[in-house]
Design brief:
This is Major facilitator superfamily (MFS) profile domain-containing protein. This protein is mainly alpha-helical. 76% of the residues lie in helices and 1% in strands. The protein has a domain of 241 residues: Up-down Bundle (Growth Hormone, Chain: A), CATH 1.20.1250. It has a two-stranded antiparallel sheet. Strand 1 and strand 2 form a beta hairpin. Helix 13 runs antiparallel to helix 15 and helix 13 runs antiparallel to helix 18. It starts with a helix and ends with a helix. 43% of the residues are buried. The C terminus is likely disordered.
Length: 487
């Protein structure tokens, strides 16, 4: 935006202000650096202050970073520091929110609620594109202060809204706060505190957590230990995040303007962003149902094949029909209607397929794959992996595409085929399992390709233990009378 460039750019020999590549890199990379650090740092606050308290802390940090950016006048140092601070909050919340959702949601709805997390992110991005489109022609600093400053609203919603939500019952039980956990379980299930269901569920959770937590306090090294197959689970979480970033969809956001121009479109880059954002929102909606009907494995494998096909067609057709034969200016003004239409069509289909499958599913898997003792640390490693490769992609993809053009899509084609193979051989199905049953599945050594038909035994053992406890304490009679149960 012109006002932004005038305030934070450099004066060129022609008397016009411009943003040098080095300044653009600093402004961009400091946010990515913040997200990487924040994703790892939240592991310390999640255990110490709880999931709810940790969300409160990092929402405050994010909001402070936004305030620093919004109040900047001419200092690029202040702008980049503000972006780094805001990035700390973004990275931390990207790990804590799936963690919190996974621990508070019932198993039948956990996948849907974690997809809803991704849908809200996509809707937020889409709204930001619309706001950019609406403000970019304002001649004053409002052109960029409005989009940046509006983030204060979302930060305030997080800061105030979390006060009305309960703490994770698993965290409460893990820290010895059983009475509070019973209250939360009752709230989450919509039943009175003295309902027998509360004691049954809490006892089952206690049994599962006790099985998980034998051995004392967890360390970062334990995430890669052979205990309960944690190394495999951590690597699965990190690999899914790695493949997600190299699906190729983000490339269209970073470099789509140039590509679409070479395809012959005269659309404004802001309009292109809005179109891609709308496609992402529409694509994420079906995932709310597919994540629980198709499951995690099938969604990932089908998505990998669909996106691979889109990358292959767009890459080959784009190279053969839009390959540069002259200067960059000639390339951008050259029009090959058939090739350009194919490239645009498959780019949109690629983004849509990603939104249905690989956009939300790795986050769902990350939020439900780890035992309580290492969950914050393992999710931190997965989230940090996502932000690390996000930074590398945004930094290197335009430079690679400038040299080989549409053929860069063949790199993503190869990564998607790798992702399909990896999911088939290493990613088990976690649909319909409690977090404790996911732990049992990994330790039982079931093959991923047989995991869809695997039946857990932990819940049965926990229920038998609860029944024996009820019998020993005469609890069967108490179940008849809520008054006696409360007493």
């Amino acid at each position: 935006m012109p006002d932004f460039i005038r305030r934070f750019g450099e004066l060129g020999p022609d008397g016009e202000y411009f943003l040098s590549s080095s300044r653009q890199s600093i402004i961009t990379s400091l946010l990515s650096a913040g997200t990487f650090v924040g994703a790892l740092a939240q592991a310390f606050t999640s255990d110490r202050f709880g999931r709810r308290g940790s969300i409160l802390i990092w929402s405050g940090i994010f909001t402070a970073g936004v305030a620093v950016q919004t109040g900047t006048e001419y200092s690029i140092v202040q702008m980049t520091i503000g972006r780094f601070i805001a990035g700390l909050g973004v990275g931390a919340l990207s790990a804590i929110v799936p963690l919190y959702n996974g621990e508070t949601a019932p198993k039948a709805l956990r996948g849907t609620l974690l997809v809803l997390y991704q849908l809200q992110i996509i809707v937020g991005i889409f709204l930001s594109y619309i706001i950019d489109l609406a403000t970019h022609k304002i001649p004053s600093s409002a052109s960029w202060r409005v989009p940046v400053g509006l983030q204060l609203v979302w930060g305030t919603i997080m800061l105030s809204g979390i006060l009305f939500l309960p703490e994770s019952p698993r965290h409460l039980l893990g820290t010895g706060r059983r009475e509070e956990a019973c209250t939360v379980v009752a709230q989450l299930n919509g039943v009175p505190l003295d309902d027998p269901l509360v004691q049954d569920l809490v006892s089952e959770l206690e049994y599962g957590i006790a099985q998980e937590n034998e051995g004392g306090k967890a360390t970062w090294a334990e995430c890669f230990s052979s205990r309960n197959m944690l190394w495999k689970r951590t690597m699965n979480g990190m690999m899914l995040q790695f493949v997600q970033q190299l699906n190729g969809q983000n490339f269209y956001y970073y470099y789509g303007d140039t590509f679409f121009k070479s395809a012959g479109t005269n659309l404004d880059p802001y309009v292109i962003q809005v179109i891609l954002g709308a496609v992402s929102v529409i694509g994420t909606v079906p995932a709310l149902r597919l994540i629980e009907t198709w499951g995690r494995r099938r969604s990932l494998m089908v998505g990998a094949l669909l996106e691979a096909g889109c990358s292959l067609v767009a890459g080959v057709v784009g190279h053969l029909t839009l390959a540069p034969t002259g200067t960059a200016k000639e390339l951008l003004t050259k029009r090959n209607k058939s090739g350009g239409d194919v490239l645009i069509a498959f780019a949109v289909l690629h983004v849509f397929s990603f939104s249905v499958f690989w956009g939300p599913t790795p986050w769902v898997y990350l939020g439900e794959s780890f035992p309580l003792r290492v969950r914050p640390k393992a999710i931190a490693l997965g989230s940090a992996t996502n932000w690390f490769w996000n930074f590398l992609l945004s930094f290197f993809a335009p430079r690679i595409a400038a040299k080989i053009g549409p053929l860069i899509l063949l790199i993503f084609f190869g990564m998607l085929l790798f992702g399909y193979v990896y999911v088939y051989f290493f990613i088990p199905e976690t649909k319909g399992l409690t977090l404790e049953e996911v732990d049992e599945m990994y330790t039982s050594g079931v093959k991923p390709w047989n995991s869809s038909t695997w039946k857990p035994h932990l819940g049965e053992k926990a229920r038998q233990r609860v029944a024996e406890m009820h019998k020993a304490e005469g609890y069967e009679d108490k179940r008849v009378s809520p008054t006696e149960s409360t007493a």
